């Protein structure tokens, strides 16, 4: 190492939204340290709000300035010594993630749905079910306390996700995976109601997540053993050159994929999903279900398309099997569910399967017919429709409440359409979108991923996808029918009127879901405009 | 190579021990054995940095955390081995077996090639080479690790720390309360008398003697007197015995006095209890 | 490996000495026990926290353990920087200072919120 060391070129002009997000989280930690408790909630939510706004504006600005590459087929830059790739898909996913996080932030700050109390536990270290505080009534208690740490944690998770889908090498990807996971593990355990369930969810998510991270590291090491580099572009070069110990590559890539598929909840790595979605505070579930999937699919796409694009006949058959299992597993298990959040969890597993179907639509750009949707475009669009509808639908589930918390049981929702048609109507629209009924965003999303997969010749997978969509329609519509065409029970749950925070989230999600169903063109074009990955 | 053949059996035996010992603490200690042996292997493989990491982070910090968690749940706690899911054990063994076969096949296929690249990586020093990549292509990942550590700190605080509902009582508060108690009820204001120290037995369990020769019961720590292990002022008896001896020498007469003194001693003991 | 021979020798010497001392004292030392002697502290101070239910300690100590690990990981990152410091120049310095500052923020949070209070 006789040559002089030079630091890597870090292009601030491309990376500053990412730094803004991490900076916001750090400011949040400083606020936690130095602000008095009474002021903390307001300061924290404002800091996070401002940070997210800056990040959103920054993402748009960065997107506008991306240089074209490869004759316009791609745009973007590789920066920070190859660790981060800011290209079209990256900024699209960044924008999507920030938007979803804004929704999450609004739900986090909601106080009116639970009689003025925050949605998070007053003091998470208290044993579940213990009385708050040492004194009796009138004495100081933890009842109206709140863990304002959730705001910096949310922003940290966002930062990790943004880095995750932009990472150009496996090491950065791994660090990003941990940065996005750790805050989520924590947030899952902070529900105010049903503490034990919440802690169980956090525990399961943490243990299984840590296990899957282990797979990632091991796989990463094996891929290094094959390619001699962790850089995805470098791996691609090694794969194209061929030779070497192929087994190392296959096993390593499979192990990395295990971790990534775990994050998106694909069968057979899905078992955490229902428990975690059910136990976590619903605001966290809404955020996590949407954002984790967006970020992790970004990483899956980059890993498979950039790193292993030339080995696609090695991974595609395996992914066929996983996609088929995931779709069928998701919908079949969803049919028997009696809890709303578990139902939605299984439905999200099925959606993972549909997204994987889209991932399978990879074709060389030369093979793409004129005007045909590329698989990347299809998956990006699907992620947008799924993310928005998911945040919306979980936001609606916070509104229907029993005395002890949310009315989780499907049976409790019977006849809701008669008593509060607005809430039930919004819920129904989101369900229809998740089911993929025409004139909702979900339909266009499904159509585009199916078309792209069919274009790449993955006909069997598409056939299974259509079958499982039909099964899914059955249980979504069954739920809508019981909401609108049955009498409400005697002790029907209360539908609370939320503060504008939740209302705005639901309304915007609703508008976007319908708008994307009616005029999908602009967003679809935007996803297409993002172009290919830069390597 | 010698290092490997010495350490490998130790590691394998210790690793098997982790699986089969009954107490969690023993398993943790065996894990430490595995980790230290691994560190020595790293040293033998010319990876001094990894050696240091293995010792400092794994054997030091991670092991400590393991033991800590064991102490949180109780050192004597042992696992319940009742299956909650029927057939789980059989399934686990089956899946594990399949996985082992799979790994065996893979390793068999891959063969063991000669390791290359070590020389290039260690050229100019192992740690220097590491610094070069850490501060060039992975500098962003390095900075991002800080976010990870901060999250860990936040998590530990959120999940394990209970904040105070009422402000902490400071020394000034306690002093004021004491003076108030003195003013209102005439409670003793100063510090308590120190225990009598006679350098016999357990010194602090012996009450001090007040100027008039009576024991100061409050001078013995309440912990000891509550536990019942305090000594009922033997010194008191000793003083009497010395007086008795002096008297006996003068009067040339003995055991009767001693009996009387013994009686007064047990009276003092009764008062103590 | 040559480099570590003195270290290993010292290690063996230290281990041998420790084992020898313990063994000899158990063999030759007087064995008179009473209750006070078997306490953790002979002066009668109670060990805090008092072991209950098989020597369990309160979960609040976990924060301390976590802080320890965080600083442990931190120093491991400082080692390559310190070794290669002259080459890394300003870029390395800024990178490390930024890293340390961020971690100090977490530490400040723990300190301000009473995570390090001993009561």
Task: Walk me through this protein's architecture.
The complex is a heterotrimer of chains A (about 525), B (about 270) and C (about 120). With about 525 residues, chain A is mainly alpha-helical. Helix content of chain A is about 65%, strand content about 5%. The relative contact order of chain A is 0.11. Chain B has helices at about 1-20, 25-45, 50-75, 90-110, 120, 125-135, 140-160, 170-185, 220-225, 235-250, 255-270; strands at about 210, 215. Chain B has about 270 residues and is mainly alpha-helical. The termini of chain B are far apart. In chain B, helix 2 (about 25-45) packs antiparallel against helix 3 (about 50-75). Chain C is mostly helical and about 120 residues long. The relative contact order of chain C is 0.06. Chains B and C meet through helix 3, helix 6 and helix 7 of B and helix 2, helix 3 and helix 4 of C.
Output the keywords.
heterotrimer; A: 535 residues; three-stranded antiparallel beta sheet; 19 helices; 67% helix; B: mainly alpha; Four Helix Bundle (Hemerythrin (Met), subunit A); two-stranded antiparallel sheet; 11 helices; NADH dehydrogenase (ubiquinone) activity (chain C); quinone binding (chain C); NDAH_ubi_oxred_su3_sf (chain C); NADH_UbQ/plastoQ_OxRdtase_su3 (chain C); transmembrane (chain C)
């Amino acid at each position: 190492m006789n040559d002089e060391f030079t630091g890597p070129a870090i292009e601030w002009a491309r990376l500053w939204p990412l730094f803004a997000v991490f900076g916001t989280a750090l400011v949040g930690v400083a606020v936690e340290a130095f602000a008095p408790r009474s002021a903390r909630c307001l300061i924290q939510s404002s800091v996070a709000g401002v940070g997210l706004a800056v990040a959103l504006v920054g993402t748009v600005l960065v997107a506008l300035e991306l240089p074209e590459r490869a004759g316009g087929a791609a745009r973007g830059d590789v920066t920070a010594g190859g660790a981060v790739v800011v290209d079209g898909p990256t900024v699209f996913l960044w924008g999507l993630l920030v938007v979803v996080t804004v929704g999450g932030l609004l739900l986090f700050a909601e106080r009116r749905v639970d009689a003025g109390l925050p949605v998070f536990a007053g003091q998470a270290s208290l044993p579940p079910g213990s009385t708050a505080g040492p004194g009796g009534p009138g004495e100081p208690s933890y009842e109206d306390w709140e863990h304002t740490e959730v705001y910096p944690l949310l922003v940290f998770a966002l930062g990790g996700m943004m880095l995750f889908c932009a990472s150009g090498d496996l090491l950065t990807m791994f660090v990003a995976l941990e940065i996005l996971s750790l805050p989520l593990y924590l947030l899952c355990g902070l529900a105010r109601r049903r503490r034990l369930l919440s802690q169980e969810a956090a525990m399961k998510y943490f243990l299984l997540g840590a296990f899957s991270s282990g797979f990632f590291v091991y796989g990463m090491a094996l891929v290094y053993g094959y390619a001699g580099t962790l850089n995805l572009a470098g791996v691609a070069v090694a794969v194209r050159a061929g030779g070497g110990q192929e087994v190392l590559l296959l096993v390593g890539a499979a192990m990395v994929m295990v971790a990534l598929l775990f994050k998106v909840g694909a069968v057979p790595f899905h078992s955490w999903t229902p428990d975690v979605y059910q136990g976590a505070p619903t605001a966290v579930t809404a955020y996590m279900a949407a954002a984790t999937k967006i970020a992790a699919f970004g990483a899956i796409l980059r890993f498979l398309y950039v790193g292993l694009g030339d080995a696609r006949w090695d991974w595609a058959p395996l992914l066929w099997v996983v996609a088929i299992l995931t779709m069928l597993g998701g919908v079949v298990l969803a049919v028997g569910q009696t809890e709303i959040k578990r139902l939605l969890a299984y439905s999200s597993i099925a959606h993972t399967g549909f997204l994987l179907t889209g991932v399978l639509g990879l074709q060389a750009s030369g093979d793409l017919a004129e005007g045909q949707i590329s698989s990347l475009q299809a998956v990006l669009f699907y992620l947008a429709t799924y993310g928005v509808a998911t945040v919306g639908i979980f936001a609606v589930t916070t509104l229907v409440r029993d005395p002890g918390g949310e009315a989780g049981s499907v049976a409790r929702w019977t006849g809701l359409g008669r008593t509060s048609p607005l809430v039930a109507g919004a819920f129904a629209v989101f369900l229809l979108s998740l089911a993929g009924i025409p004139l909702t965003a979900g339909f266009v999303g499904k159509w585009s991923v199916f078309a792209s997969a069919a274009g790449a010749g993955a006909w069997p997978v598409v056939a299974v996808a259509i079958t499982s969509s039909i099964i899914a329609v059955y249980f979504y519509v069954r739920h809508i029918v019981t909401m609108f065409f049955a009498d409400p029970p005697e002790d029907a749950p209360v539908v609370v009127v939320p503060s504008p925070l939740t209302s705005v989230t639901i309304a915007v999600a609703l508008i976007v879901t319908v708008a994307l169903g009616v005029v999908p063109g602009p967003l679809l074009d935007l996803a297409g405009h993002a172009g290919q990955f830069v390597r | 190579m010698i290092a490997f053949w010495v350490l490998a059996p130790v590691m394998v035996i210790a690793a098997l021990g982790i699986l089969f010992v009954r107490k969690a603490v023993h398993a943790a200690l065996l894990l430490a054995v595995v980790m230290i042996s691994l560190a020595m292997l790293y040293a033998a493989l010319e990876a001094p940095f990894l050696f240091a990491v293995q010792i400092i982070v794994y054997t030091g910090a991670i092991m400590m955390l393991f033991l800590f968690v064991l102490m949180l749940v109780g050192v004597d706690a042992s696992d319940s081995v009742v299956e909650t899911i029927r057939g789980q054990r059989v399934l686990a063994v089956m899946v594990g077996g399949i996985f082992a076969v799979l790994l065996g096949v893979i390793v068999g296929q891959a063969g063991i090639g000669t390791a290359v690249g070590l020389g290039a990586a260690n050229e100019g020093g192992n740690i220097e080479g590491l610094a070069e990549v850490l501060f060039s292509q992975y500098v962003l990942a390095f900075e991002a690790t800080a976010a990870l550590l901060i999250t860990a700190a936040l998590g530990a605080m959120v999940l394990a720390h209970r904040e105070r509902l009422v402000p902490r009582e400071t020394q000034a508060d306690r002093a004021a309360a004491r003076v108030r108690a003195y003013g209102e009820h005439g409670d003793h204001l100063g510090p308590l008398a120190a225990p009598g120290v006679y350098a016999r037995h357990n010194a602090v369990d012996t009450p001090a003697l007040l100027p008039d020769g009576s024991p100061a019961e409050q001078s013995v720590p309440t912990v000891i007197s509550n536990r019942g292990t305090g000594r009922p002022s033997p010194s008191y008896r000793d003083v009497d015995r010395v007086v008795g001896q002096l008297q006996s020498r003068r009067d040339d007469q003995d055991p009767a006095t001693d009996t009387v003194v013994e009686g007064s001693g047990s009276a003092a003991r009764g008062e103590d209890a | 490996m040559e480099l570590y021979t003195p270290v290993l020798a010292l290690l063996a010497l230290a281990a041998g000495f420790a084992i020898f001392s313990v063994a000899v004292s158990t063999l030759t030392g007087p064995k008179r026990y009473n209750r006070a002697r078997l306490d953790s502290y002979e002066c009668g101070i109670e060990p805090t926290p008092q072991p209950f239910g098989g020597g369990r300690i309160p979960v609040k100590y976990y924060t301390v353990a976590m802080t320890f690990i965080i600083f442990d990981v931190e120093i491991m990152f400082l080692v390559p920087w310190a070794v290669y410091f002259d080459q890394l120049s300003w870029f390395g310095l800024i990178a490390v200072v930024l890293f340390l500052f961020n971690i100090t923020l977490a530490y400040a949070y723990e300190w301000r919120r009473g995570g390090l209070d001993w009561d």
